Amino acid sequence: MVKKRRRTTGSVRYFVLQSSGKDTSHVFTGRQPRQAALKAATRGFTSITLRERGRKKLHIFSGSRKKVGAPANAPAWMPRSIWKANVRKKGIKHLK
């Protein structure tokens, strides 16, 4: 009998950005795929395909970003305008 490994609540997962079906050098981390996709969208990627390391899954997102003003409670080091990311999940593709 094979036991499944359970993730702890604080475990970080690694997601590799793919372009044209091949891995790129961009790796984003997060507990959920959406968190990694938001990081990718913040950096300007619009067609986001993330391969989860250690799993045979591709998470497919579409992303965008826009320039917005910093929040009122922003720290002093934060610039006056920041990039606000938005992503929408298109689906999951299972690899063989």
Structural overview:
The mean pLDDT is 92. This protein is mostly beta strands and 96 residues long. A five-stranded antiparallel sheet has the order 2-1-3-4-5, covered by helices on one side. The protein has one domain. The chain has one helix at 33-42, and strands at 13-19, 22-30, 47-52, 57-69, 81-94. A hairpin with a 2-residue loop joins strand 1 (13-19) and strand 2. The chain is built from one helix and five strands, in the order ββαβββ.
The helix-strand sequence is EEHEEE
- In terms of DSSP E residues, the strand content is over 45%
Largest β-sheet summary = 5 strands, antiparallel
Report the C-alpha radius of gyration, rounded: 16 Å
- Across the major sheet, the strand order is 2-1-3-4-5
Number of separate structural domains: 1
Number of helices: 1
Q: What class would the helix/strand composition place it in?
A: mainly beta
Helical proportion, percent range: 10-25%
Return the average pLDDT rounded to an integer: 92
Oligomer: single chain
Distance between the termini: 22 Å
- Number of DSSP-assigned strands: 5
From the spread of the alpha carbons, the general shape counts as: globular
As residue ranges, the low-confidence spans are none
Report a brief summary of the structure.
The chain has 96 residues and is mainly beta. The protein has one helix at 33-42; strands at residues 13-19, 22-30, 47-52, 57-69, 81-94.
Q: Strands, helices and their partners?
A:
Blueprint: E1 13-19, E2 22-30, H1 33-42, E3 47-52, E4 57-69, E5 81-94
Antiparallel strand pairs: 1-2, 1-3, 3-4, 4-5
